Amino acid sequence: MRKLLAIFVIVVIGVTGYAVADPGPSGSNNHGLCTAYFNGSENGQAHKRNAPPFVALAREVGNSDGMDNDGDGQTDEGDEMAGPEGIWDWCNDPANNPKGIGGNPDDPNQDGDTSGNSAGHGGGKK
Ligand SMILES: [Ca+2]
Ligand SMILES: [Ca+2]
Ligand SMILES: [Ca+2]
């Protein structure tokens, strides 16, 4: 019975092309996603960034930013996720988000070290 259901689901997805879990940026919700991502308490932001829509946003940005985000020598190969700095740039690009980031967002680029080596990858090289 289980198996039948699984097959049914696969067939439905195949026929309609509808992906069950695709809550990421769709164009129309970019403004809301960007605004939510960069607003709220630091703790709250850290939590919600694990939620599917924000993970999808990080993926979308990470796989289209021309950078090797995960440092494995391949660029935009499909499994990369951008960090807050990359998402900030993406959200401030009128091509992605004409309305900009709403609210009172925190610029991750102005948090701490702004001297010189702002390569934008999330640590690792010390
Ligand atoms: Ca990579
Ligand atoms: Ca990338
Ligand atoms: Ca990779």
Strand count, sense and closure of the main sheet? none
- The helix tally amounts to 5
* SSE class: mainly alpha
Question: What is the terminal-to-terminal distance?
Answer: 54 Å
* Low-confidence regions: 12-21, 114-126
Question: For the CA atoms, what is the radius of gyration?
Answer: 17 Å
Strand/helix succession = HHHHH
Structure description:
The chain has 126 residues and is mainly α. The protein has 5 helices and no strands. Helix 4 (52-62) packs across helix 5 (84-91).
Question: Could you provide a short overview of the structure?
Answer:
With 126 residues, this protein is mainly α.
Features:
single chain; 126 residues; mainly alpha; globular; disordered C terminus; binds calcium ion
Write the layout of secondary structure elements.
Layout: H1 2-16, H2 30-37, H3 42-48, H4 52-62, H5 84-91
The structure holds calcium ion (3 copies).
